[in-house]
Amino acid sequence: xxxxxxxxxxxxxxxxxxxxxxxxxxxxxxxxxxxxxxxxxxxxxxxxxxxxxxxxxxxxxxxxxxxxxxxxxxxxxxxxxxxxxxxxxxxxxxxxxxxxxxxxxxxxxxxxxxxxxxxxxxxxxxxxxxxxxxxxxxxxxxxxxxxxxxxxxxxxxxxxxxxxxxxxxxxxxxxxxxxxxxxxxxxxxxxxxxxxxxxxxxxxxxxxxxxxxxxxx
Length: 217
What we know:
By secondary structure, the chain is an alpha+beta fold. 64% of the residues lie in helices and 10% in strands. The chain contains 5 helices and 4 strands, in the order E-E-H-E-H-E-H-H-H. The protein has helices spanning 28-35, 53-61, 90-108, 112-119, 123-216, and strands spanning 10-16, 19-25, 47-49, 67-70. Strands 3-1-2-4 form a 4-stranded antiparallel sheet. Strand 1 (10-16) and strand 2 form a beta hairpin.
């Protein structure tokens, strides 16, 4: 059995955005990863381990899966939760409700020994929950690998397209340079012919002008 299957799962709870969130995980680090948190919510006092029997039972039934409920409510945690209906004054309503819930819980909370007994999970159930958590982690890892493979494939396609376009540009530039060089060579030859023709004409003109001068004398 893999080592992490033997780790005891615990239930962690936090509030993010419009939802209270809970997850069964072997450690705070695993819970933060499941929530996608970018900072340590536990050190900030925004997350905690909970021993609420209802929340523990719900998360242990789906280890590693983040369950939600509208923030500030005392309803059950589920995989799909609706938005709170009182978003405008959510903060103002949430605090007194939290105090009320705390008093109610203190009145209804059973004796310490009975609570421990009700929360007890036998070894077989714990192994099943840990296995389910491991399965969920593998599923998320597979999704990440699939996304990374898709990004790598896109990079290869883009690099190939860039290389093809660059090769076409380089070939066109070489062709242009060759033609320009040939044109320059032709221009130089024409300049040389023009210079030679000018020299020949100058000599002929001078000779003919001299003949004309003598004829007029």
